Each structure stands twice: as structure tokens, then as C-alpha cells.
Amino acid sequence: MENKNKDISLMLKDAVILFAITLISGLILGFVYQITKAPIAAQEARAIQEACAAVFPGETDVTFEETGYIPTAQLTTELKDTGVEIGTIFKALAQDGSTKGYVVESTTKEGYGGNIVIYVGISAEAKVSGVSILEIAETPGLGMNAEEVLVPQFAGKDAVAFTVTKNGSTAPSEIDAITGATVTSDAVVNAVNGAVRVVTEELAEGGR
User: I need a labelling partner for 104 at 20 to 30 A (CA). Which of 18, 20, 22, 182 fits?
Assistant: First the structure.
């Protein structure tokens, strides 16, 4: 009986110690989170500003704010049919508050290696100011050349519906495909076209 009571006492002691360790660990983690939360948020905000600025080259003193805009159900469905989903949309604002354009996060699910996520900058004059690839996992030496081959072709062009060509572009709206990577080329162009449609709709309504 004495041994049994001793065993119970040891079990209770161990349980109390474990509880105390868990409680202290939780408090420490909570304290660390509170300390690091603000710096992490600031870093993430800075990274977003830098990513947006990358598709608005040459612009100074421009800040980017989330618009909260969500494409209409009809547009969302139409884009989904092309494998495109629209993410966060940012408005590029000058110091005087005027709208310089938009940055649209566009994801295509039709890449050869999976999703391709891009940022597309479109100016208030309805021109593509820049395209930046945020996420891509295509074939090395082929689709992975999208940043070097496809991206530069969009800059400065009118924000219209782009098409892919394998025979050499003869019009500003035509984008030369990556040799041996037509699937990747089509996917990226569709993602850009999705962003163009959203911003065209925004501009048609006078901005948001």
C-alpha cells in the first residue's frame, strides 16, 4: 500500500512538473511572438512594396496600397476557364494621392511544372509597366527561362490581350514563345492577360 501511494505521489509530481514546463514554454513562446510580431509584419510589408516597385521601374515616391477589389463572379469564372486566379490587387499612389496604376497578383495553374505566380504592373495609361515572376517551378533550361525570355517582352506595351507566337512576333500584342516551352509561355501570357482584364475593368470604372 505504501509503495502504491508512493507511485501515485511520483506520478502527480511528474504531472505537475510537466504542466509547469508546458506553461512556462507557452508563456515564453507568446512573449517571443509579441516581440517579433511587429518586426516581421514590417518586413513583410517592405517586401510587398519592393515587389510592387519592381514592376513599376523608374517611378519614385510611389507607394502601393491594397485595393480590396475582388473581380466579379463572371470575370472570375472566365479567368478560371483559362487556369488563372487573381490574388491581391494593389493601387500605385503618387505622393499627391493620384493613381499611377495597379499591381495585380495573378496565378496560373497551367504551368508545365505547376502554379506560376506573377505580379503585373499596369499604368494609369493602360500600359504594362512590368512583369515579375514570384513563383515558378518549370523545367530548367526551358520553362525556367521565362524570366529572361518572356518577362522583358511585356514592358511598355499597351495593356491588351496578348497572344503567343512561335514564328516571331509581328505585332506588339504577340509574345515570342520560349523555344521548347510553349506550355509555360501560354501559361504566363494567360496570367498577364488575366491581370490586364482586371485592371481594364478598374480603369473603365474610373479607378477604385
Answer: 182
Q: What angle do CA 101, 127, 107 make, to 5 degrees?
A: 75
Question: Which pTM value belongs to this model?
Answer: 0.78
Tell me the pairing of strands 174-176 and 163-165.
parallel
DSSP 126: S
- Beta-strand pair 114-123/99-111: antiparallel
Amino acid identity of 76? T
Query: How far, in Å, CA of 91 to CA of 208, rounded?
Result: 8
Q: Find the angle CA(143)-CA(145)-CA(151) to the nearest 5 degrees.
A: 105
DSSP letters spanning 141-197: TTGGGHHHHTHHHHTTSBSS--EEESS---STTEEEPBTTBHHHHHHHHHHHHHHHH
Instruction: Extract long-range pairs of 19-25: CB within 8 Å, 24+ residues apart.
Output: none
Alpha-carbon distances, residue 32 vs 39, 46, 118, 139 (angstroms): 12, 21, 33, 41
Cell numbers 500605385 correspond to 92
Residue 112: all three cell numbers together: 508545365
pLDDT value of position 37: 57
Grid coordinates of 125: 495609361
